[in-house]
Amino acid sequence: MLRMLKVVLCVLGLSLSTWASAQLSIEITQGVDNPTPVAIVPFAWRGVGAPSEDVARIVDNDLAHSGQFAPVNRRDMLSFPSRASELYFRDWRAISAEYIVIGEVRGGARIEVEYQLFDAIRQVKIASGVVSGVASETRMLGHQVADQIYEQLTGIPGAFATRLLYVSVNRNPNGKDFYRLTLADSDGRRPIVLLESRDPILSPAWSPDGSEVAYVSYETSRPAIYRQNLMTGNREQLTNFTGLNSSPAWSPDGSAMAMVLSKDGNPDLYLMDLATRELTRLTQHYAIDTEPTWMPDGRSLLFTSDRGGKPQIYRYELQTGRINRVTFEGAYNARARVAQDGRNVAMIHQSGGQYHIAVQDLVTDRVTVLTTTDLDESPTIAPNGSMVLYATKDGERSILRAVAVDGGVRFSLPAREGSVQEPAWSPYVNAQR
Amino acid sequence: MTVFARIGRAALVGAFVTVLAACGGSVKEDEAAAAEAAAQQQAAQEAARAEAARQQAARAREEAAAQAALADAATAAGTVFYFDFDSSELSREARAAIDAHIALMLSNRASARLEGHTDERGSRAYNQALGERRANAVRDYMVANGVPAYRLESISYGEENPVAYGSGESNWQQNRRVELK
Q1: Per-residue pLDDT at A31
Q2: What is the pLDDT at residue B26?
Q3: Whose CA is closest to A103, among A135, A130, A140?
């Protein structure tokens, strides 16, 4: 039986398939009441050859997408300084900018981006910095500058220098749908297809250091868990058990993979040691136990179980094997994802007959429903804990939307065509945090 | 020798020859009779074989007709069985349809693949497990009614590969299914 399966090697910097139809664009649907006006002046290019990216535009878009900033339009700028000596604050107070970012890009095969951040009202420099890398990663360097500026202005580390893993599905009215496991920058740009198949691809997951991904593929006509190295493109099939092989979740120290197998009679949680491939069974219950996700300290897992009748979130303590119920509000709670602070948990939460995304504070047990959309699923939290990205239904297809954990900012990321589902937000791209 | 003696001797020889001739004649008759009997026996055997072959052909035709009837019944019953929301219980209609397939599978050596599906509501991984429950429910019912387990494979696709892509009950109801292939 011919399986139309193609593995596209993802070598950093080489995009072998810029699938335009799967590219996501960001549309702000709700911002804060008074977004802060920031002027990001086009950076001067002091390098060899032609500049490959408009770095200031990347910073501009990132700050705008946060919903908290209103970048000044370039047409309104009275001057274009790139050095402090060229900066006249009256030019910027005149157009009501509160902050100014200037900078320059230099280099050739390897580039440096230097920026300076000024407070236009107090007329002082607040911060400056340099980021460097290979020219092909210029966009990511721009995102790193945006992260630093965002942190300077809000106190919260930015999460722009991150990537999104998701499954893109194109419907084929004459046969099997096309599935593409896709990797893009967090602004939706530079999509790369990691795996293409006529059979479903599900549950994409990141390794803790961001170097590998895991997923479930039906390419053998049965579901199996695979891991794939992003640098080398090497794939490895990890499981081949009868029944379900689903929901891979890397432990925070990268040594083990939690997963769901039903080979012993019904879906239960298992732990696979990645070095030895030894399997340890964690739960043993006739109910459905699924969707394990790790607490950041690696000492317990949250998971979905219908052992109480309908799906709710439970916690499994690895040391003791103790299981406790976590969610008590709402008839249906599933698919938990824990923020890096170990305190906020995003989940699918049924309320008013609709499936929303909610966040539960594990310390206070307070539940906040974040969305007004229905049929929401697959929440994933940004590594800075501030935004939740999820999938929801839009007509006959699935699109991605994002909402701030405090409910303030919302945006949607529709693809030009096809469905986008199961987003997974990467850890930070470099190990700075 | 006297004349009487000569006549007597001739008569005796004549009688002797006649007797001899008569004996020779009855052996030939026996042979003919035996040959006829053998021929009759052979004809009877051939007739019996032909009859047996006719009967066998008739039985084979009956079996083929029965097989075709089972296959038709199974086709008429359809290969898709539907479920209520959040449930893996087999309805009466589903059972009746599956019965037709059980009857067919008990009469042949075919294998079947049972593919479980759900509607889109709720999380994907939980729906994968729910789809498996549905496929297993069909499998277990078939096994309980005599189909050997090794001939059945059950797989779940969860909410993937829907039949209907919209929302609302008219779409969801078409997707909550197990397909027999």
Answers
A1: 82
A2: 63
A3: A130
